[in-house]
Amino acid sequence: MLATDTSATDLPELEEGIALSHRSQAFLAYWNDVRGASKIPAADDVRPSDFISLLPYVRYLRWDGAGSLVFKVWGTALADWMNADLTGRNVFDLLPESERAAEQVRLKNLHSLPCGFVQQRRVTDISGMTRLFEFLTLPVAAGSDGQLRMIGPGSFVDAVPGERVELADDPKTVIHSFRYLDLGFGVPA
């Protein structure tokens, strides 16, 4: 079911200045197909078997209460790149404390409009090189457990020139850029 033609005219219009990686484009096309006439896809309609070629790059998250957004899936390519499987980890534990409140607002906005977002974060890969990592994050309706979800791919875009750091046991990421993605219902001001 994974759409291979990402030039389709029924994809949400990207704002000027947003250039998605090919993985993000392909996943956005899949997400758009799955949602059909709905604002966002139902949790039961999102089936990993439909996007098997992208699964190694996918993050699937679920709200498990206030301040707890847990990775339910952290793709194997992501785990290999970062030398860490974040499945079961709370997103907010991985962010600098100074960014947590703003990130919670951003993530909650995904379901309120709905909208998506494209974010680049500076992360340190297993070689110690600091690189830009692109996240496309899209809303998914609550499952039978009543918990809202989010999904999207992540991949390294390029190296940040001249930056090399020693690896920490539990490295934090630092935001580089952020843009909401209009899925047809507007974006937060």
Describe the protein's architecture and organization.
It comes from Candidatus Phaeomarinibacter ectocarpi. This is PAS domain-containing protein. With 189 residues, this protein is an alpha+beta fold. The chain has a single domain, classed as 2-Layer Sandwich (Beta-Lactamase). The chain has 3 helices and 6 strands, in the order H-E-E-H-H-E-E-E-E. Strands 2-1-5-4-3-6 form a 6-stranded antiparallel sheet. A hairpin with a 4-residue loop joins strand 3 and strand 4. The longest helix is centred in the middle third of the chain and has 16 residues. The radius of gyration is 16 Å and the shape is globular. The N terminus is likely disordered.
Write the layout of secondary structure elements.
Elements: H1 22-35, E1 58-63, E2 69-74, H2 76-82, H3 97-112, E3 116-124, E4 129-140, E5 149-164, E6 174-181
Antiparallel strand pairs: 1-2, 1-5, 3-4, 3-6, 4-5
Features:
PAS domain-containing protein, Beta-Lactamase, about 20% helix, about 190 residues, DUF1457
- Rounded average pLDDT: 82
CATH topology: Beta-Lactamase
Helix content estimate = 10-25%
Name the strands of the widest sheet in spatial order. Answer: 2-1-5-4-3-6
Shape: globular
Q: Kindly report the name of the CATH homologous superfamily.
A: PAS domain
Short précis:
With 189 residues, the protein is an alpha+beta fold. The chain has 3 helices and 6 strands; from the N terminus they run αββααββββ.
